[in-house]
């Protein structure tokens, strides 16, 4: 199998040459029944701290699979120190946001409840599984921390002052992302409101915090999930690791 098309799975176990990793039942099903792998086939494993290792299937059964860790394939690399805060959307849109945020390299995801948030129902365990799948597919070596949803005011009252927070401002009173973002670097965060945007009260509150900066993504009104991708792409291109090979 080409390393370009390598099969990767995320594990909790410590990784080191000669170690044995026992796969979960779901991982065993994926490797043996979906990908049709057999004893001796390569599987690449990562755990968010030790790097990515080449391993081989050492044992397999009907619902069991054990991997023998062989060699370090890639040393651990931290993702950029940028967080995403977003107002939960409908199920499919929220799933999209989680997957794209992982692909775009965020280190932490925080669902926020705002005045116009349309739903507060989220299964964090299911979304964490989606985040793991997106990390496996996008070749990143870690999985972002996914927090429980909380009210915007509560999150900002406990905010670390050294972390710049960019919020998407649809009022037309903020400068463009291209003008404002390059003035800053990590640690940073992007806040995207719900489909109805932020209330006037929320915008006033955000504007008066010492660590926040409103940014505009242009004249067109974007769907919330589109705004997440656009805003994170701007940050990665202007301040993040898209500037490097």
Write up what this structure looks like:
It is a single chain. The mean pLDDT is about 90. The protein has seven helices and twelve strands. With about 240 residues, it is an alpha/beta fold. Strands 6, 7, 8, 9, 10, 11 and 12 form a seven-stranded parallel β-sheet that branches. The protein folds into two domains: about 5-75, Hypothetical PUA domain-like, domain 1 (Ribosomal Protein L25, Chain P), CATH 2.40.240; about 80-245, 3-Layer(aba) Sandwich (Alpha/beta knot), CATH 3.40.1280.10. α3 (about 125-140) links the parallel β7 (about 110-115) and β8 (about 145).
Key phrases:
12 strands, elongated, Ribosomal Protein L25, Chain P, Alpha/beta knot, alpha/beta
Largest sheet: 7 strands, parallel
- The coarse silhouette is elongated
The name of the CATH architecture of the largest domain is 3-Layer(aba) Sandwich
User: What's the SSE pattern?
Assistant: EEHEEEEHEHEEHEHEHEH
Count every helix, treating DSSP H or I runs of 4 or more residues as helices.
7
Look up the CATH topology of the largest domain: Alpha/beta knot
From the alpha carbons, calculate the radius of gyration and give it in angstroms: 20 Å
In what range is the share of β-strand residues? 15-25%
Tell me how many strands there are.
12
CATH superfamily of the largest domain: SPOUT methyltransferase, trefoil knot domain
Overall domain count = 2
Supply the helix-strand structural class.
alpha/beta
In whole angstroms, how far apart are the ends? 25 Å
The residue fraction in helices comes out at 25-40%
CATH class category name of the largest domain: Alpha Beta
């Amino acid at each position: 199998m080409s390393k370009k098309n390598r099969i990767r799975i995320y594990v909790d176990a410590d990784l080191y040459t000669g170690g044995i990793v026992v796969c979960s039942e779901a991982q065993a099903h994926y490797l043996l029944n979906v990908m049709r792998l057999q004893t001796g086939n390569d599987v690449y494993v990562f755990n968010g701290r030790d790097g990515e290792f080449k391993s081989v299937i050492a044992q397999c059964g009907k619902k069991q699979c054990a991997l023998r860790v062989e060699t370090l394939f890639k040393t651990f690399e931290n993702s950029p120190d940028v967080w995403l805060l977003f107002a939960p959307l409908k199920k499919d849109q929220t799933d999209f946001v989680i997957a794209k945020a992982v692909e775009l390299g965020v280190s932490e995801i925080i669902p926020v409840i705002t005045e116009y948030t349309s739903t507060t129902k989220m299964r964090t365990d299911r979304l964490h599984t989606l985040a793991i799948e997106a990390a496996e597919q996008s070749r990143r070596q870690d999985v972002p921390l996914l927090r429980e949803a909380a009210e915007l005011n509560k999150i900002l009252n406990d905010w670390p002052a050294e972390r710049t927070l960019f919020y998407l401002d649809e009022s037309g009173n903020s400068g463009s992302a291209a003008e404002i973002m390059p003035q800053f670097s990590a640690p940073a965060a992007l806040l995207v409101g719900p489909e109805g945007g932020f209330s006037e009260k929320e915008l006033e509150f955000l504007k008066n915090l010492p660590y926040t900066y409103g940014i505009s993504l242009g004249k067109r009104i974007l769907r919330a999930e589109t705004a997440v991708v656009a805003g994170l792409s701007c940050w990665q291109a202007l301040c993040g690791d898209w500037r490097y090979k």
